[in-house]
């Protein structure tokens, strides 16, 4: 089957690239290895589909880290405002109920997927599912694609939008990386990201009833002191999860590859330091000298965590706080302000929402998303070595890079 453009992967960036390329009067074929399109998009944000956020482009890029400027051309062409206008133009209104995260009205990814499907059909995109790409050959300017079904497709240009290794149950197996390698591209080290983490400490298993807001996590290694994240945290049977953990796991999983364990400090008290906690307790004791240790700690922490940390420093929770030994008080206040935690592992890509790593950015032209090594081959989305935190960053990058790649400059 012959076309102008073949897009490999029917996720967010692949569907966007298909629409934009087809609007330029190209005959577009979209190949998807699964039985239907948009499986990962359907699951994103717990099915609510956090499309983007309301940050300025500069802050948005900064939050991606040292390689964030790579997004510049894609964002200048198709940023959060342009994305909202695009979806409005195909019948989907959006809102930002918390002033930050942008969702489709109704908060259903099915709305987004349906609109993209209708727009692809309207523009004549030919969609072929159950077509895993096995090989790409080059015959002069033509690209010859062979799939697992034995079907052969030909095109002038190819857009690889096949994702990374995150969400393997939704078809992610790193096919794009294999194809890129076969063309001579370098693939950076690949790590699972946006996932729960396992810890050494056993006390956390007693704290599963509570979500702790505005927690700061910081790596407690001198060389990596600058690595930190803030957000809501949830304790599990053998680890931690929640938005702050999903964000921070991007930094932790590569460290675990170098180290057996990664020590952290947590601030569970909404930023209160030792002196501020001490002052707060002094004021409370002035009003109630007979207050029990557990009761005073519960003024800043939920009961389950308060009890667990009291036990960690051998502070009897059922005696008056004023009767605690000075050394025990100091230990208790210290652990409240900086709670140590040791990350020892994770569940690998099976629990990862995204992949950290991918096709080297040095080998992709950021102005077009075209390969610097092979003319007429483009990359977009998660297959590229670029990932952001939670909050619409990665989906915006998928749509922006797909939009840019679809221009086929």
Provide the CATH topology of the largest domain.
FAD/NAD(P)-binding domain
Which oligomeric form is depicted? single chain
Number of domains: 2
Q: Terminal Cα separation, in Å?
A: 23 Å
Order of strands across the main sheet? 12-15-14-13-16-17
Give the averaged pLDDT, no decimals: 95
Number of strands: 19
What's the CATH C level of the largest domain? Alpha Beta
Helix content: 25-40%
Characterize the largest beta sheet: strand count, sense, and whether it forms a barrel.
Answer: 6 strands, antiparallel, barrel
Q: Return residue spans where pLDDT drops below 50 for at least 5 consecutive residues.
A: none
Please tell me the CATH architecture of the largest domain by its name. 3-Layer(bba) Sandwich
Cα gyration radius (Å): 25 Å
Percent of sequence in beta strands: 15-25%
The helix tally amounts to: 13
Shape: elongated
CATH superfamily of the largest domain: FAD/NAD(P)-binding domain
Describe the structure.
This protein has 409 residues and is of the alpha+beta class. The chain folds into two domains: 5-190 and 352-406, 3-Layer(bba) Sandwich (FAD/NAD(P)-binding domain), CATH 3.50.50.60; 196-346, no CATH class. Helices cover 32% and strands 21% of the residues. It has 13 helices and 19 strands. The protein has helices at 12-23, 39-43, 57-62, 72-77, 80-89, 109-122, 175-182, 243-258, 274-287, 293-297, 303-312, 326-337, 393-406, and strands at 5-8, 28-31, 52-53, 94-95, 101-104, 126-128, 133-139, 142-147, 152-155, 157-160, 191-193, 197-199, 211-219, 228-235, 239-241, 262-267, 339-345, 354-356, 377-379. A six-stranded antiparallel β-barrel has the order 12-15-14-13-16-17. β1, α1 (12-23) and β2 (28-31) form a beta-alpha-beta unit. α1 runs parallel beside α6 (109-122). The longest helix is centred in the middle third of the chain and has 16 residues, at 243-258. The mean pLDDT is 95.
């Amino acid at each position: 089957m012959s076309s102008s453009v073949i897009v490999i992967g029917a996720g967010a960036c692949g569907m966007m690239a298909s629409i934009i390329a087809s609007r330029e009067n190209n005959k577009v074929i979209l190949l998807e290895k699964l039985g239907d399109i948009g499986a990962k998009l359907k699951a994103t944000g717990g099915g609510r589909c956090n499309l983007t956020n309301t940050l300025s482009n500069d802050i948005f890029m900064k939050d991606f880290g040292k390689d964030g400027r790579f997004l510049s051309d894609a964002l200048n062409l198709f940023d959060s405002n342009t994305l909202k206008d695009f979806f409005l133009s195909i019948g989907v209104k959006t809102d930002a109920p918390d002033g930050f995260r942008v969702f489709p009205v109704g908060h259903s990814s099915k709305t987004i997927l349906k609109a993209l499907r209708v727009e692809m059909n309207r523009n004549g995109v030919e969609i072929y599912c159950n077509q895993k790409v096995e090989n790409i050959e080059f015959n002069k300017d033509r690209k010859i694609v062979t799939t697992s079904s034995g079907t052969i497709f030909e095109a002038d240009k190819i857009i690889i939008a096949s994702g990374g290794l995150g969400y393997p149950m939704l078809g992610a197996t790193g096919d794009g990386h294999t194809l890129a390698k076969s063309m001579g591209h370098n693939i950076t080290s690949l790590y699972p990201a946006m996932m729960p983490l396992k810890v050494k400490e056993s006390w956390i298993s007693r704290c599963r009833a509570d979500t702790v807001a505005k927690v700061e996590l910081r790596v407690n290694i001198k060389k990596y002191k600058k690595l930190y994240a803030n957000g809501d945290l949830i304790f599990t049977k053998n680890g931690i999860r929640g938005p702050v953990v999903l964000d921070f796991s991007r930094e932790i999983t590569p460290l675990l590859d170098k180290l057996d364990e990664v020590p952290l400090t947590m601030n569970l008290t909404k930023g209160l330091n030792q002196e501020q906690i001490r002052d707060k307790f002094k004021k409370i004791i002035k009003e109630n000298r007979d207050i029990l240790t557990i009761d005073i700690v519960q003024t800043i922490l939920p009961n389950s965590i308060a009890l667990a940390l009291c036990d960690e420093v051998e502070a009897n929770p059922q005696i008056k706080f004023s009767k605690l030994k000075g050394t025990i008080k100091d230990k208790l206040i210290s652990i409240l302000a900086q709670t140590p935690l040791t990350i020892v592992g994770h569940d690998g890509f099976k629990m990862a929402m995204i992949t950290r790593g991918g096709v080297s950015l040095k080998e992709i032209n950021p102005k077009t998303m075209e390969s610097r090594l092979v003319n007429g081959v483009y990359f977009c989305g998660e297959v590229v070595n670029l990932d952001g935190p939670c909050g619409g960053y990665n989906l915006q990058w998928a749509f922006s890079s797909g939009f840019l790649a679809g221009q086929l400059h």
